[in-house]
Amino acid sequence: MMAQVWTVVFYQPAKCQNYTTPSIKTRNIELKVIDKFCYLGSVHSSSTTVDDDISSRLSKANVAFGKLSKSLWRKHGISIATRMAVYRAVVLTSLSCSCEWWTLYCRHIRRLYQFRMRCLRKLAHIKWQEHITEY
After folding, report:
1. Is position 40 within any domain?
2. What per-residue confidence (pLDDT) applies to 19?
3. Residues contacting residue 7 through CB under 8 Å, at least 6 positions apart
């Protein structure tokens, strides 16, 4: 019995070239070409932007934060240090997993900063109206 072997090929053209769909055959069977797929939690696509991967990571971190809402963030008897330790271990880990290859632009940094501040405000029971501008 032969085991199936899956091959993942990343084909990203240079910025000055147009994208052309590759034709890859193995054992006279042409492999299906897809535009986007998830591999080990990261979203890979034929475009060179990381917007889909950042959105996916933000939603996963938001789910992780939301699941801890009733049991940890809304409890008043738990110290801020304990909340921060859980926040770093669970939420930030799920957000920053495989982020080493991201090329971040200002819009990405702004989205990540907004998510982080929203989480920290909920964690510390600070309302968004109590905002102090930075100079």
Report:
1. yes
2. 63
3. 24, 26, 31
Distances in Å between the alpha carbon of 122 and those of 22, 106, 113?
A: 47, 24, 14
Count of structural domains within the chain: 1
Tokens representing residue 84 in the block: 């921060």
Residue 9 lies in a domain: no
What domain range includes position 104?
Answer: 36-129
**Distances from the Cα of 12 to the Cαs of 15, 20, 47, 60, in angstroms?**
9, 9, 7, 26
The single-letter DSSP state of residue 130 is: G
Quick one: the chain helix, strand, coil %, rounded to 5?
A: 45, 10, 45
Q: What are phi and psi of 45, to 5 degrees?
A: -140, 170
Strands 29-30 and 25-26: antiparallel
Burial class (CB in 10 A: 0-12, 13-18, 19+), 87: buried
Amino acid identity, residue 22? Answer: P
Q: Please, what are the averages of pLDDT over each run of 10 residues along the chain (135 residues)?
A: 45 57 79 75 68 86 91 86 92 82 83 91 83 66
- Is the separation of the CB atoms in 48 and 104 below 8 Å? no
